[in-house]
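Q&A log
Question type: sequence-to-structure
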Amino acid sequence: MRTMKILAYTTTALLFLSLFTACEIVKNPYPTQENVITEGIVFDTVTSTPNTTYRSVLIEEFTGHKCTNCPDGAAEIARIDSIYGDTVIPVSLHAGYFALPDPPGSGMYEEDFTTDLGEAFNTQFGVAAYPAGMVSRIQVAGNYVLTKTQWEPAVQQIKNDQPLVAINLTNLYNDSVRSLKVLVDIEWLQTASSSYNLQVYLIEDHIIAWQKNGPVDDPNYDHRHVFRKDLNGIWGTSIPTSAQGDTLHQEFTTNVNAEYKSKNCMVVALIYDVNTYEVIQATEAHIMH
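Response status: OK
Response body:
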């Protein structure tokens, strides 16, 4: 799991007086009250994780529950994660033919982990075989989509880069009404000359469901880092400025599906170059402890 600061508040609610609007540049965007009340909802859990000292590496894995070789890809990501820890942020995109669910009532493979974003990425980046993955969407020999043996070398290639930008991610969550508010705060550490977008993901870890594992149909497979939904569109939202010292505050609100286990859900925020797709920074935080 990622290193994160977790603040859990259970005492009497105090009114949150400073409401922020999307795309507002602010000096001190982080809530300090014991409970946060905004838009009539008491957000009793706040989780936050800053990233200013290193470049995080995003691994977006393309997988499917009927892909017989995909558990090998998941095992490779787990191995990489165990070595590089907080540096690596994995996300699993279930897309393509092997991700299609069986009809309801069939008793196997009924879960639908596919999403519009996953299918769009599957098409845009030309995924042809599974498992496959992108490492911060850098190109290796002209290819975005890499085989599992290429993932670790790609991580090593960029993990020591000086970060261009820092992302602070704060999640406000009420489990009773399943309401999540995400505050994203960006600070440019260096001036960057391209155009950039922000993407915000909701992912769920440790989903127990069917998976083809070689010749075996495993009903109790542990699906890791499953992409559930985007919070700001498939390709994200534009970041208007990228000069050193510039800051930006954006907010996103969503409901968390009642079928998702809140304690296993995380928000991933990332910034990418719209001309090359390269992810220059990412961070993640649980929505509750």
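Response note: The chain has one domain: 5-286.
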